[in-house]
Amino acid sequence: MTAPGRRSSTFTRLLRHGFTDPSAAERLLVSPELTGVRDDPVLLEALGATADPDLALLGLVRLLEAQPTPAARRELLGTLIAAKPLRDRLLGVLGASEALGDHLARHPHDWRALVTYEPRDLHPGVEEFERGLAEADDPVSLRVAYRRCLLSIAARDVCATIDVAQTAAELADLATATLRAALAIARTAAPEDAAACRLAVIAMGKCGGHELNYVSDVDVIFVAEPVEGADEQQAIRAATRLASHMMRICSQSTVEGTIWPVDANLRPEGRNGPLVRTLVSHLAYYQRWAKTWEFQALLKARPVAGDAELGAEYVDTLAPLVWKAAERENFVHDVQKMRRRVVENIPAGEVERELKLGPGGLRDVEFAVQLLQLVHGRADTSLRGGSTLGALRALADGGYVGRADAEQLDQAYRFLRSMEHRIQLYRLRRTHLLPEAEVDLRRLGRSLGLRTEPVDGLLREWKRHAAAVRRLHEKLFYRPLLDAVAQLAPGETRLSAGAARERLVALGYADPAAALRHLEALASGVSRKAAIQRTLLPVMLGWFADSADPDAGLLNFRRVSDALGKTPWYLRLLRDEGAAAENLARVLSAGRLAPDLLMRAPEAVALLGDGDGSGGGLRLRGRAQLEQEILAAVRRADGAQQAVTAARGVRRRELFRTAAADIVGTNGTHAPAPGDEVDHGRLVDLVGGAVSDLTAATLAGTLRAVVREKYGDTLPTRFAIIGMGRFGGHELGYGSDADVLFVHEPWEGADEQEAARAANTVVGEMRRLLQIPSTDPPLLIDADLRPEGKSGPLVRTLKSYGAYYRRWSLGWESQALLRAEHVAGDEDLGRRFVELVDPLRYPEGGLGDDAVREIRRLKARMESERLPRGADPTLHAKLGRGGLSDVEWTVQLLQLQYGAGEPGLRTTRTRAALAAARAAGLVTDEEAATLDEAWVLATRVRNAVMLVRGRAGDTFPSDPRELGAVGRYLGYGPGHVGDMLDDYRRVTRRARAVVEARFYGMQDGPAPR
Questions:
Q1: Among the four residues 317, 723, 779, 867, which has the most C-beta atoms within 10 Å?
Q2: Model confidence over 668-687: pLDDT tens digits?
Q3: Is 927 exposed, middle or buried (0-12, 13-18, 19+ CB in 10 A)?
Q4: What are residue 796's DSSP bridge partners?
Q5: What's the predicted TM-score (pTM) here?
Q6: pLDDT at 335 over 50
Q7: How far apart are CA 968 and CA 944, in angstroms?
Q8: CA 197 to CA 194: how far, in whole Å?
Q9: HSE-up of 878 (CA within 13 Å, CB side)?
Q10: Beta-carbon neighbour count of residue 41 at 10 Å?
Q11: For residues 879, 884, 887 and 889, what is the CA-based torsion angle, rounded to 10 degrees?
């Protein structure tokens, strides 16, 4: 009797052997079933070696209780103690699988399946499993026989007699035998159907690839043909009945549970398509309609049941199509997009526990390997295997993947699959989630051999392998491209030039030979620079490939690297600051404008870094900051030309910052996460405001430089610059001219003619200096909106403007003045000019009927005369249907009519005026939203065209690559430019309907509320 407060020696021994509930274990050990062996050290030692000693002991007691006679119980105990192979296998299974323990309790004789230990039992194949299932003639007996066979696989698995790859292959062989048995039962139940058709079952997915899990859907495709002389339609109906019955036999739940679901959704058209097709029908579908992922799925296709000849014919017929899949447009993008979509669909609370689908999971390895198989398997038949690990070995042997990378992935994949197997084995449930309970983690860790720290050790190993997969799966595709042009270590196999070109073409490179030359120039050699480039380039190539023009991205990267490669900070920035490399790749492959601006001063690459992680380098600067920097540079300069050169240099750098922020905000590290709502209007306002502020600051600096050089500190006249058009509206695009008016007012006592000459001299010198050819983009000043247009004086006094507007002003000039805003020069004079024109642009009482008709007539005339010949009016962003002109003229008409009485309409900004019109009830919420959407979209199109082509344009490009790049900027993936054009037409068509109603008078007056 143990004294109170003291633990028994048995309790202590149980703790030492890994039991977590020694008290419950003590009670089980004293049960009658264990009489004679409860103190046997061999038994305790064997229980302690299992994944869960408590579970193993409970399972053993239940199995002993279930024995039909005392003799049977003695036989089991005697064999258990005497035969180590049985002891290890039986207790190993009982300690790892509650579900198989339940099976043994229901079928107490099945433990004998673990007794034999002959060499031929170690690696059974399909034939051995078919013998094990031979007596099953109904769904219930098939389940019992299946579990008996599964018991033997699990026993060899937990005892490490077979590794994870062999386990997966045996599970696939057992599935094959089970499908054959189920089909035999279905055929016996419907002999007429069986006689009418030839039916073949094609395994797909993990079963087809010979790498099945313990519990997984078994993916299949059915193909059938009529027997000779039979009607095809009747044969297909018969085959469909057989296939459906076979699926039910495996999938339906019975008193013995279920085996696994048979899933035929990988068939043509998925669940919407017929369950069974003829071979001709399959071929027609894959030739005409199949998507890239469907060819990827066919990599695993393997005939497993039914008519073997037909199954082989199916695989042979479709194989050529599989190996042509990499020639499809956007092939790599489609595969990678499919992978991203899988990750995005994981519930947020499960991402960190997903072994299969999460980042760094099994699917990352499988997708990467399959991608390489499809690209290189066309020419190299050794890569056409179905299993992931077998294909990975072949890829490494062929030099398509680095040996070290392949070894790391192999180890990670084996560990992750082992985790998945043991998690599923416990209750024979389909799951890929790491358990959260400590008891489950402990069992899992011990089952994988982590006995000292099973929980912490398991989590550590999992994170290590997942991190390796995350790091390697992207670069797996790109790294060998560098090895193809670099010096390799002894024993390494390089990717052949042909295979490298193959891979580059699959990535979308139009000139793979040039791309290889760039890679060689960047990555060859033994210098530290080349070593860093070899680290950077694999992932950079992926980002380039994600653009519409990978060739341009790689070429621009080489140009920037050649210019900056010797500076100590450049490669360090790309290597150490996570955002910098990706942002640079996105910017360099997005079009011509940003790379051209960057190449004029490559040190601006520094703006792309994330510094403290806030992305500050791409944070757009305000007018005050810009003007302060430019005026400081002007003060330091020696002469006006040097001062304006400095100002233009700031402008060029800030244009690059704005373009880069725009690109990165659309498709880079600052882009919205998938599924987040995107506010395109905000980005349009940011770009328009930034370019307008930059233009104003540049003009202010240029004005200061010219005045200082020509007149010292004091000009003989007050001088102000008034922004007009998009400049005054804070809506300038990258390629916009600066529309302005110049106004001056002589100082008291100054000679008016001298003042006028000085003002004209300043304007002429400003225009000249801002257009001097240099590495910086010119800033064109357009003063054509001045009174009398090009025929009128370039500069007027405030009094002259007043006199002109009182006597001669036309309606279009009042409309143009809606955008007038002081941007540089004398602030008081600018304010007084605005006060002068306010009565013209916001007339008391609004516009008369004649004035409204005149505005409408001018707009109609502009539509008919100014649209370029041959331009598609449905796709012209400025003058086309529902474009910028339509929206702006509609808003401006409302401002002219109602601005005097509605303060909110007194703004130079289109979107702000439209919002005020909606708030005032002048347009409905729906109309305002429709016009705003069209205006924002048309503005984005113009910005995109400038970013892509490097020159301004109002229509979509005709060149396919440029059109694709515009599509990427607007958020459309490869192959979706047609959708982009359709969406643009739809949005602008709706906007035009509002314009017809609100501008052209089909619905006059305030909007109905």
A1: 723
A2: 555 555 555 678 899 999 99
A3: buried
A4: 743
A5: 0.71
A6: yes
A7: 9
A8: 6
A9: 15
A10: 9
A11: -60
CB atoms within 10 A of CB 486: 18
In DSSP notation, 616-641 reads: GGGPPPPHHHHHHHHHHHHHHSSSHH
Look at residues 937, 315, 1009, 298 and name the one whose alpha carbon lies nearest to residue 678. 937
Residue at 258: amino acid letter: T
Q: Which residues contact 861 (CB under 8 A, 6 or more apart)?
A: none
Helix (H, G, I), strand (E, B) or coil at 712: coil
CA 166 – CA 143 distance, rounded (Å): 23
* Rounded-to-integer distance, Cα 832 and Cα 840, Å: 14
395 pLDDT higher than 60: yes
- Ranges 56-60, 371-375, 522-526, 537-541, most confident: 56-60
Residue 197: partners with Cβ closer than 8 Å, 6 or more residues away: 224, 225, 226, 227, 230, 235, 236, 238, 239, 242
Q: What is the pLDDT of residues 562-601, one digit of tens each?
A: 888 778 788 888 877 767 888 999 999 999 999 999 998 8
C-beta neighbour count of 808 within 10 angstroms: 10
Antiparallel, parallel or unpaired: β 717-723 and 302-306: unpaired
Cα–Cα distance for residue pair 222/199, rounded to 1 Å: 7
CB 421 within 8 A of CB 157: yes
pLDDT band for position 71 (50/70/90)? Answer: very high
- Cα dihedral across residues 519, 525, 529, 531: positive or negative: positive
Confidence check: pLDDT of 4 > 80: no
DSSP β-ladder status, 781-782 and 738-746:
parallel
> What's the distance, CA 582 to chain centroid?
13
The token pair at 21 is 């509930």
According to DSSP, residue 276 is labeled E
Question: HSE of 638 in the Cβ direction (CA atoms, 13 Å)?
Answer: 0
- Mean pLDDT for the stretch of residues 72-82: 92
Question: Reduced to 3 states, what is the DSSP secondary structure of residue 103?
Answer: helix
User: How far apart are alpha carbons 502 and 396 in whole angstroms?
Assistant: 17
Amino acid at 34: L
Element (H, E) at 483: helix 454-483
Question: What pLDDT sits at residue 1008?
Answer: 44
**Beta partners for 302?**
203
* Amino acid at site 912: A
Find out whether 605 and 564 touch, Cβ atoms under 8 Å. yes
Tokens encoding 156: 């060899």
